[in-house]
Amino acid sequence: MSPGEKPDPLPDNFILQPPVFHPVVPYVTTIFGGLRAGKMVTLQGVVPLDARRFQVDFQCGCSVHPRPDIAIHFNPRFHTTKPHVICNTLYLERWQAEARWPRLGLQRGASFLILFLFGNEEMKVSVNGQHFLHYRYRLPLSRVDTLGIFGDILVEAVGFLNINPFAEGGIEYPVGYPFLLKSPSLEVPCSRALPKGLWPGQVIVLRGLVLPEPKDLTLSLRDQAAHVPVTLRASFADRTLAWIAPWGCKKLISAPFLFYPRRFFEVLLLCQEGGLKLALNGQGLGATGVHRQVLEQLRELRISGSVQLYCVHC
């Protein structure tokens, strides 16, 4: 993309808000595009040993006076005889009837990963991969445009994603892959071993940020002989995304090109019988055929190009 050139308009469901690392609490931020069914907010952190309570509020605005409506108030409390969680809604500065969950899946001094999944009629919450609660909306989800985090909590990362389109067939929650926290990003080129190859149901997750002056992004899968039977390449020069066959044949993928400078992205590859399914920013984009024997013989995932990586899972 030439200097000064603007990215092509993208559908809202293709745009992901960048993650936030180690925000200072209290923390309030705008949710780009607001909330809608199909979105997911992830919260990584640690509960302090002396924690009394914290809250995560999905707000309708961020005014101080009058206080904004809070569509969803998620409030773990540790200081009571029986720790519990309260969910509620604040409407016109008045709290509605509390919903209480006596079991608390969080512990003082322990790390956690919370997933907030937003459906058509309710929010579901998982803690460390286990279902915790569901809360029916009392205000329209479309009014929510602000996230607020308050109280006794050490936040390591906040992620704004779309629900994994591959989480189907009885799987209540997509697997919450955490962001990397030990360093701002992984070094690129980056390599990950696949000691047992790929098998049906396995998901490769790649999250990152495109650099200011990008050239390309390449994700390749290699076997023991260093052959490369599967390559996915984004070319910034001609704004194309394509599968590259071992003999060099290119198969273009019909989708909006979303790899633009300083833009956050998520790539998902789902291994299935006879090939790999692709999703970008939570939107399914079809599949490419690969024989099962070839998938089983893969031993390395390699990523190169003009990106910072925040998460690589395989």
UniProtKB/TrEMBL annotation:
Signal peptide: none annotated. Keywords: Lectin. The keyword Transport does not apply. It comes from the Eukaryota. InterPro entries: ConA-like_dom_sf, Galectin-like, Galectin_CRD. Residues 27-161, 190-314 form the Galectin domain. The keyword Secreted does not apply. This is Galectin. The gene is LGALS12.
